[in-house]
Amino acid sequence: MNSLKEVEKKRKQVFKPLLENPFTQAQFPRIEPIIQEQLLEFLLHILLDVKKYNTLVDSKPSFKVEKPEILSNITLGFNSTVQALENQAQDKKQTPKLSFIVVCKADIQPQLLISQFPVLCYTASKQDHKIKLIQLPKGSIDRIEEVLGKKTGIIGLQNFENLPEGFIKLIEEEVKNIEVPWLENISFVSPKIKMLKTTAPIMPKRNKQKTNKVQKS
Fold first, then answer.
1. pLDDT(207) > 70
2. Which CATH code for domain 33-52+68-184?
3. In the chain, what are the domain boundaries?
4. How far apart are CA 74 and CA 99, in angstroms?
């Protein structure tokens, strides 16, 4: 009778198909750390109107407080931002039409949660309207929380009239457009399938009659 070790040593040659995958993971555009810090400071300044509004609403709930312009041109959080991008990709009428997506990439774990944003931003972009994907430095999520009063690591912004020109200019000069090569000039290409020569263990055949007898007894 062969031992388990001897059985494991006996292997047969088999072939396994290998399918080439051209869909490499799209990446966030690289931004120099000093530029990330500058963009964060701009963003915190932009969000100050939201902080003032929230403070007034909380302190004087009976008073009617006019909403700041930015609240009509911004999405806060994962769900609202993703929904806006998906609608934009499908050319659905919506407000706002996002131009900038800001993500506290270094603070969000696991990274799988935000890995979809490069492709989302790319598909929601148009030839004359490229969405810029901006990553902020570590610790940004806490600083944004100090302003908004809640943790928000993902923000979508429309390029509205009162958005600081310095903020827009810095983004245009320092943040590259998203690149997703496998979505550019899409055309069907036959998949490349290869056969990998390898081995697999040879397992002894079971005697069904003996097995049945053992079960009956």
1. no
2. 3.30.1330.30
3. 33-52+68-184
4. 10
User: Is omega for the bond preceding 110 within 30 degrees of 0, making it cis?
Assistant: yes
CA 50: distance to chain centroid?
Answer: 25
Residue 133, strand partner residues: 101
Averaged over 110-115, what is the pLDDT?
91
How many Å apart are CA 115 and CA 112, to the nearest integer?
5
CB proximity list for 162: less than 8 A, separation 6 or greater:
69, 70
**11 bridge partner residues:** 201
Q: Do 157 and 102 touch, CB atoms closer than 8 A?
A: yes
Q: Contact at 8 Å (CB) between 132 and 170?
A: no
Question: What is the mean pLDDT of the segment spanning 179-183?
Answer: 80
Q: What are residue 194's phi and psi, to 5 degrees?
A: -120, 165
Task: Quote the CA–CA distance of 133 and 100 in Å, as a whole number.
Answer: 6
**Any residues with CB less than 8 A from the CB of 84 and at least 6 apart, and which?**
75, 94, 96, 98, 156
Give 213: exposed, middle or buried? Use CB within 10 Å, 0-12, 13-18, 19+: exposed
Higher pLDDT, 128 or 82: 82
Residue linked to tokens 């072939």: 15
In 2-88 the beta strands, taken as DSSP E runs, fall at 11-19, 74-76
Nearest to 179 by CA among 136, 135, 113, 132: 132
pLDDT in tens, 54-92: 888 888 777 888 888 899 899 999 999 999 999 998 887
The two three-digit tokens of residue 3, written as one number = 């031992």
